[in-house]
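Action item from last week, closing it out:
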Amino acid sequence: MGLKNRVKNRVKNRVKSLFLIRLFTSSSMNQKGQEQQGQRKIIPWKTVAGSLTLLAVMVAVVYLILLNYQTYKQTVISQTQRQLQTIAKTTAERLEEFIVEHMEALKTIALNPAVQEEVARRIRHDQSDDDYCQGKALYEIHQNDMDALTILDVDGVLLQRHPFRTNCFGMDLMDKPGVTYVIKEHKPYVSEMFYNKLGKPAMSISEPVFYGGQFAGLVRWMVQIDTLSKLFFEPIKVGRQGYVWSFNDKGIILSHQEKDFIGKSMLDLVQKDHFEKGDFIIQRQSKGTYSKRT
């Protein structure tokens, strides 16, 4: 019995020992697993620093891109402004040359002795005349850039009109822009914008005619603003959608892509939100200072 009990105790202790070892091993494995999980959750500081550095670089790159874009944008705007300023100056010079050229043409016919005598004698020319007509010849030369040529006597009565228009002879044109001034002052005159009989905005250039040292009448060009726009403004292209428009020193729009704007006050359109800072633009440009639409 004593031997049997001793064997039994040894087996029991062995089982107990194995069980404890198994528990210890399982516990150790769980502990190692938790340590490994803990190690996986902890990010090394080098990795964090690298990520922050990469993020900073990306932010810096984006900032530089935006900064360069703004610089490029300002450069393009500045270059466009200089280009527009050059275009405006060149167009203004061409317009001045255009007016001077046609004033010289009027002066040439006004100094023609045959024309002077006809005006003094109040001789009329109509479409049926077979004789050579100085006024008709001059108009035909400039018919692509002038809309009409008229010759008036000392009282402002119409003697000739080219192109010819029926029922116009003998009309009193004293109320036409520039006619009264030339009759009173005997000097050339370039009018401001006005509306002709067709309701179209136009301007006129007038030159006095003398005969024997005495004022006898005047010759007068009439050109529609639309004609000037086609000659000087419409050919100008600004980018893909840009266009050129003009107004006088009083803010009256002379030419514009929107035909309904022509002849209207820019300040009135500003109040209707068609333009912004219209009074500022008028003040700047009336002083000869360049400004841009904003």
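Closing note: The chain has eight helices and eight strands.
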